[in-house]
Amino acid sequence: MADLALRFGKDMLVVSSPIQEALRRAGIESARALLVEPETIEEAYRMEAVAGPQCLVTPVADFTPARLVAVGAEGKGEALAEAALAVMAEFKPQHTLVEIAPCGLPLDPDSKASLVENRDQYARAAQLFDGRAFDAFFLNGFTTADDLKCALMGLRKVTDAPIIASVDVQGDGVLTSGRGTWREAVEVMVEYGAAVAGFSTLAAPSQARSLADTARETLEARGADLCLAATLQVFQRDAKQQGPTAENPYYSPDTMMPAALELRAAGVQFLRAAGQATPAYTGVLAATVAGLDVAPVL
Asked: How many Å apart are CA 80 and CA 60, to the nearest integer?
């Protein structure tokens, strides 16, 4: 397994799409399935791995104690961590990303006790992977800067592994929770030790590029050198749709090609399709940026 940090700022990298859609189609909803039906998980990964992403993401992200309780896997964190990495290892990925989702606990940013409780959720999640082989943590699905701050602080309390951080953001730069902005989230990523600043959006390619521009401007103002990551959310796959719409710009895998080129031109290094994306979306991203370096932005 190559060292992901050695590739920061160099060649373009594609991240595997979530396999949850494929699992739901197979009737699997729970993270515990990883322990009892690993063959089904492997089949979903097989299709995604063939598409050619350089980075594979763990099949579950419910590693904080609160999330383990919520999905009926209390006390099974160690087993889930081991199984998640084992199922990915079968496909010999270039890079392995451990996804950690928001813990879901209430957070009062004015309460030290609340901040510590949330921070420690992420510290305990990261500790599950102590001594295990992987390339980076992937904090994904965050919708407020305060939640992200707790997650970064928790991870940095126990690990120096690279962290890819991603928040869900609208095309206008407002976080999907309505509480805070993309610019503010980037500031948090810089201050609390992320290596990659990422966003996930339903917005069209031109708006996604503007989000990348905002991130780059914020990083330059802080004198920071974080890489950029972009996840494009597929709202609905529709072969009958005649063209992109504001509500559904990524209606088919082919829409990934111009989007990937637009984002690369804005300095983005990591690309991902999510939501209802299939391996075909990953394949188009991988084919579009194959052999390309991160574009210098003038």
From this structure: 8
Beta bridge partners of 201: 232
* Cα–Cα nearest to 144, from 117, 116, 123, 115: 115
In the chain, the largest separation of any two C-alpha atoms, in whole Å, equals 52
pLDDT beneath 50: ranges in the chain: 1
The pTM (predicted TM-score) of the whole model is: 0.95
74 and 30 Cβ atoms separated by less than 8 Å: no
Contact criterion met (CB below 8 Å) for 11 and 230: no
For 213-269, write each residue's pLDDT tens digit: 999 999 999 999 999 999 999 998 887 888 888 889 999 999 999 999 999 999 999
Residues 6+ apart with CB under 8 A from 136: 4, 5, 95, 97, 98, 161, 162, 163, 164, 195, 196
Contact 253, 284 (CB under 8 A): yes
What is the arrangement of strands in the sheet containing 95-100, beginning at the earlier edge strand? 13-14, 270-275, 227-234, 196-201, 163-168, 136-142, 95-100, 55-57
Nearest-angstrom CA–CA distance, 197 and 202 = 17
Packing angle of the helix pair 77-89, 38-50 (nearest 10 deg): 40
Decide: residue 210, CB within 10 A, 0-12 exposed, 13-18 middle, 19+ buried: middle
